[in-house]
Specification:
Number of strands: 0
Mean pLDDT: 96
Distance between the termini: 8 Å
Order of helices and strands: HH
Shape: rod-shaped
Structural class: mainly alpha
Low-confidence stretches: none
Oligomer: single chain
Largest sheet: none
Strand content: under 5%
């Protein structure tokens, strides 16, 4: 049970970090100069993908905790 709670907290913290990275990459994209905008947008999309993956891991950890 302790391991499940630790996994839940780790998953939450990972998701939260990735969510912050999305916000930061969005700000970078929005403030990028025209020559840098495409690369900044690609970084934003990659951050969204990582955040989605982390959210899925957090969801699975919550579901496992609820089943216990």
């Amino acid at each position: 049970r302790v391991e499940e709670r630790e996994a839940l907290m780790d998953s939450y913290l990972h998701w939260r970090d990735e969510s912050r990275a999305v916000a930061e990459s969005y700000r970078n994209w929005r403030s990028a100069t025209r020559p840098d905008r495409d690369g900044a947008f690609d970084e934003y999309l990659a951050a969204l993908d990582r955040e989605e993956h982390a959210a899925g891991g957090y969801r699975r950890a919550v579901e496992q905790t609820q089943r216990a």
